[in-house]
Design brief:
The protein is built from 5 helices and 2 strands, in the order H-H-H-H-E-E-H. The protein is mainly alpha-helical. The longest helix is centred in the middle third of the chain and has 21 residues.
Amino acid sequence: MTDPTVELPRGRTEPLEAHQAENLFREGVALFNGVRYWHAHEAWEALWRAADDDDRDFYQGLIQVAAGLLHLQRRNARGARNKLEEGTAHLERYRPSYQGIMVNDLIGACQPLLRELQNGFIPYLIPPVIRYAEVEPDWSR
């Protein structure tokens, strides 16, 4: 818990406990992979508000990519292009992987969509999947 006499910046919340943050993160990934971009955005927004400065751009990037894909689902080319550009730019410094996910893969999946959007087309959305970088060992064997 932080010092109650220190006021948090506007829009920020108290840091989350590690297990809460991990659960929200994984929930957001599952929602994103289930093509539920709005709900993923909401889960990650709670993380973004509570994140320290080193992680804020990471969560903001994920949120913006999810928002861009939501715009693309709704056939809003301008909104999709803007959010995908912003989101991938925020994620660049977290390559190749961060917080256990393959950031390279996510950015790579967004790039063809962005090229189509930048060329004035609304691409067919084959939903990208966020992959985990590491497989946890199976200790049950």
